[in-house]
Design a protein that fits this description.
Elements: H1 3-31, E1 58-59, H2 61-75, H3 78-81, E2 86-95, E3 100-109, E4 114-120, E5 124-131, E6 134-139, E7 143-146, H4 149-158, E8 171-183, E9 189-199, E10 204-210, E11 216-225, E12 229-243, E13 246-256, E14 259-270, H5 283-289
Parallel strand pairs: 1-8
Antiparallel strand pairs: 2-3, 2-14, 3-4, 4-5, 5-6, 6-7, 8-9, 9-10, 10-11, 11-12, 12-13, 13-14
Length: about 290
């Protein structure tokens, strides 16, 4: 391999690492939950304890009012009858600074399964998913990876169709911290309810819900990144559209340190007929997982 080839490969791997870091928040555009950390190689799938064992969360009355309103808006009729069985989204992942504009598909079902595919020009296909107790990712340049228990627990919340109803399963304390003005990426200023959440994993998240519309506009948190330490993450939700009574953000902007990613949805299908192999785990991943 020539020196120029090595440099190109190193550059590609660096960009791919940034993409992998940003992929997890992309999947949460529907569930609007916390992002997961990139998967790391392991030999066995993790089996974290389920949220049903968690004690009741401490949520003050003002925060509960904001969350209840947001859940009724984001889920519509499904907030009460829970008849939402699956959702499939297609769109594009855009990282303008890296010149990346990649097709994206995400599928989630009511069994907690998730499958995501991104086709990166010049890199190939990146796939990730959750199937049972196995959380995984795979791409041709970095190979298969299995999520740790912590990574899988975070990712599960993204694969929860009813995440907006189940905050108490992930947070131990939620406090309404007043009304504040935030500035969105397009320079628009909005007055929002500020909710501070102490998560059961020991981290803290802050979520901002529009006072006028009731919809969540922004979330901030920190994430540990190998080689970089704690990196701030800001996710902004915009271009809300009604789909079968639900309100879905068709533009999600994620900022992780200096990196910015946009997920621009093109279609959202509610309760589609998903192919039988939608959540199939690649053979290379099965071998690493020992399955």
């Amino acid at each position: 391999m020539t020196l120029a080839s090595r440099r190109r490969r190193i550059a590609c791997l660096g960009t791919l690492a940034a993409i992998t870091l940003l992929v997890a928040p992309t999947a949460s555009a529907f569930g609007q939950a916390a992002p997961a950390k990139p998967a790391t190689p392991a030999t066995q799938p993790a089996k974290p304890s389920g949220p049903e064992t968690a004690p009741a969360a401490e949520i003050d009355a003002a925060a509960k009012k904001v969350l209840d309103r947001a859940a009724s808006l984001s889920l519509g009729p499904f907030a009460t009858d829970r008849s939402l069985k699956a959702i499939r989204m297609t769109g594009r992942m855009v990282m303008a600074a890296q010149g990346i504009d990649a097709p994206l598909t995400v599928a989630i079902d009511d069994k907690g399964r998730q499958a995501m595919t991104i086709e990166i020009p010049g890199f190939g296909m990146i796939r990730s998913g959750i199937s049972g107790d196995l959380g995984w990712s795979f791409n041709e340049m970095m190979g298969p990876s299995i999520m740790s228990a912590e990574e899988l627990e975070q990712q599960r919340s993204q694969a929860d169709l009813y995440a907006d109803l189940d905050w108490g399963a992930r947070a131990s304390r939620i406090v309404h911290a007043g009304e504040v003005e935030i500035t969105l990426p397009d320079a628009t200023k909005r007055t929002c309810h500020k909710l501070v959440m102490s998560m059961r994993g020991g981290t803290e998240e802050t979520h901002f819900y529009d006072v006028e519309t009731g919809l969540r506009l922004q979330s901030t948190m920190t994430q540990l990144v190998p080689g970089a330490g704690a990196v701030p993450i800001t996710t902004t939700y915009s271009d809300y559209r009604e789909i079968k009574g639900m309100n879905q953000p068709f533009l999600t902007t994620v900022r992780v340190g200096p990196q910015t990613q946009e997920m621009r949805l093109e279609t959202v299908e509610v309760n589609p007929e998903l192919p039988a192999d939608t959540f199939k785990v690649p053979e290379a991943v099965q071998k690493v997982a020992g399955g």
